[in-house]
Input
Amino acid sequence: MPSGAGDSEGGDTGARREKLKSKIPIESVREIHQKALDDLVSVNSIFTLAVFVGLSVARQGERSLENRTECDADITNARRLVVNEVVAFACFLLSSLVAKALKLHVTICQEEEFKSTTNRNIRGIMLLLSVWASVFGCIFLTISMVDVIQIKVGKLSCGSVYAWRATGVLIAIVGLALGIYVPFMMNAINNSVRNVSKDVENQTNDEKKLSIRCWPKS
Output
């Protein structure tokens, strides 16, 4: 075989190997995961502040702004407010701790471990747990905010127009926000796990093809 042909084939082989190495941008995937987890923790922190604001309202004998006795909230509203705020706080805490643990895993995990099937499944489950904990925290926080409205503005059962307006706007906006957030997050998590899996499969197939092409001809 002419030496020029051998050099050309060797150059093509080296180029294919370099292309194969740069095919999976693991560092970019890591950065995307880390940025998403940081944003999730930041959002949970803001919601946690709202939890403590709501707890400060739970006082016995609070008078509503309606100036009608029948519109004043009773002790049941205050108890329900505290319970929902505590559950919301627990959900946000769970979401933040899982997100922090997952960020640590993404940061220190080696490339081969990052692409393994077991770690991909673990990351997917932890992302789902963190996201859904934050979603349920938002739901319980919204329910507690309805009790805050009833305590400060007036009970819904007494026909307070302002209480109904505030409750309707609150539920509509939170429902719209969750309706946008949940599908996009589920799609992002699904694509993140599937893309890494697809890249690993493509890399394995390319390595097999490359080993066949590089095998010396008889």
